[in-house]
Design goal:
Blueprint: E1 14-23, E2 26-36, E3 41-45, H1 52-59, E4 67-75, E5 78-79, H2 85-91, E6 96-99, H3 103-106, H4 113-125, H5 130-142, H6 148-151, H7 161-173, E7 179-183, H8 191-208, E8 211-216, H9 219-225, E9 228-233, E10 236-242, H10 243-248, H11 253-260, E11 310-313, E12 316-318
Parallel strand pairs: 3-8, 3-9, 6-7, 7-8
Antiparallel strand pairs: 1-2, 1-4, 4-5, 9-10, 10-12, 11-12
This protein binds adenosine-5'-triphosphate (ATP).
Length: 338
């Protein structure tokens, strides 16, 4: 359970403010604002190259040295950007854990799984001896690895991809994180296993009150798992909303395009409409709205200036001059991502 539980709802667990990243003078992230509350599941969605991973890698100090990172990312008020390496080391894997798409590359192939989880338990929880094995087995049970005691002595290649992803989740949970950032955790898995891993993440979140950030290019994956969604395009957040509201009525034409490109739900016949064209390269952004060249709603004004991320309805922001407010928004007392 979070060390902060019971403190009352004040500042968000994580607050990212005006976060920008450039590589070799080319800006790939342009002033991201994003908050995550305790226990909340936030999805970050967008096509490849939109800046979803870089946002979190920057916040956790995981980008290469050549990256120029500005802005702020705080964990319960504690600044992480340009923080001392000791603070970042303690935060990563401890208060904030991250799992990635490919468990095989994150696990050490020559070390038994139990030992790998054990190292995380020793590092982040100070456990030793028999307590490590007992806790590692408990974590394997929690993430649904069958015959957990025996699997602790297995090597990664002896388990399937889905089971190794469960091991990665167990390792992430070893530090009892307040936030798990899962970057495309199911992309490499087949549909059935994918659904099981998403269910597992939801189950674990409910049992531990851990917050979850789920990064995916697949709006379907996000919809199953997240309370709130941020849609990214070309290094910016262009729409945010509660998941159900976003699915019921996507406001930004890009979000509408992502939804139209989703495979039909079982029993629902729907045409699959991929968005034509590609995300622009960061060094070659068009003037005005970055999505304008692909946008079916484009007018000349779209190419004149960058649309601000405006409040279109309570709890709903969208960066599009073609999207009128749904209802006259009341002054927001609980900002969505700001
Ligand atoms: N180390 C790096 N050096 C230079 N450019 C980088 C580096 N890492 C990321 N980028 C660039 O930053 C932009 C955002 O990348 P990012 O990986 O965040 O996108 P993404 O939305 O997570 O996409 P994907 O789903 O493919 O991971 C891309 O243009 C990418 O090429």
């Amino acid at each position: 359970m979070s060390a902060q539980a019971g403190r009352g709802k004040q500042s968000p667990l994580v607050a990212i403010r005006d976060l920008a990243v450039a590589f070799d003078g080319v800006k790939v992230l342009h002033g991201i604002d994003l908050t995550v509350e305790r226990g909340e599941a936030v999805g970050l969605v967008g096509e490849s190259g939109c800046g979803k991973s870089v946002t979190w890698l920057a916040a956790l100090g995981l980008l290469p040295k050549k990256a120029d990172v500005t802005g702020s990312a705080t964990l319960e008020g504690c600044e992480l950007i340009n923080a001392e390496p000791a603070l970042l080391d303690a935060t990563r894997g401890g208060r904030i854990a991250m799992i990635f798409q490919d468990p095989a590359s994150a696990l050490n192939p020559v070390i038994k799984l139990g030992k790998q989880v054990g190292e995380a338990l020793a590092l982040h929880r100070g456990l030793s001896g028999g307590a490590i094995r007992a806790e590692a087995k408990r974590l394997f049970d929690l993430v649904g690895i069958p015959d957990a005691a025996r699997r602790l002595d297995a090597f990664p290649h002896e388990l399937s991809g889905g089971q190794n992803q469960r091991v990665m989740i167990a390792m992430a949970l070893a530090g009892e994180p307040d936030l798990l950032v899962a970057d495309e955790p199911t992309t490499a898995l087949d549909a059935t296993i994918q659904a099981q891993i998403l269910e597992l993440l939801t189950l674990v979140r409910r049992e531990t009150n851990m917050a979850l950030v789920l990064i995916s290019h697949d709006l379907g994956v996000i919809s199953q798992t997240c309370d709130r969604v941020g849609v990214m395009y070309a290094g910016r957040i262009i729409e945010t909303a509660q998941s159900d509201a976003l699915f019921a009525q996507p406001l930004h034409p890009y979000t509408q395009g992502l939804l139209a490109a989703l495979p039909p739900l079982e029993g629902v016949r729907r045409r699959l409409d991929p968005i034509e064209g590609n995300v622009p390269e960061p060094w070659n952004l068009p003037p005005g709205c970055s999505f304008a060249p692909r946008c079916p709603c484009r007018v000349d004004a779209c190419e004149m200036r960058l649309p601000p991320l405006d409040l279109k309805a309570p709890g709903r922001l969208a960066a599009c001059i073609r999207t009128p407010p749904l209802v006259q928004p009341q002054r927001q007392t609980e900002p969505v991502f700001a």
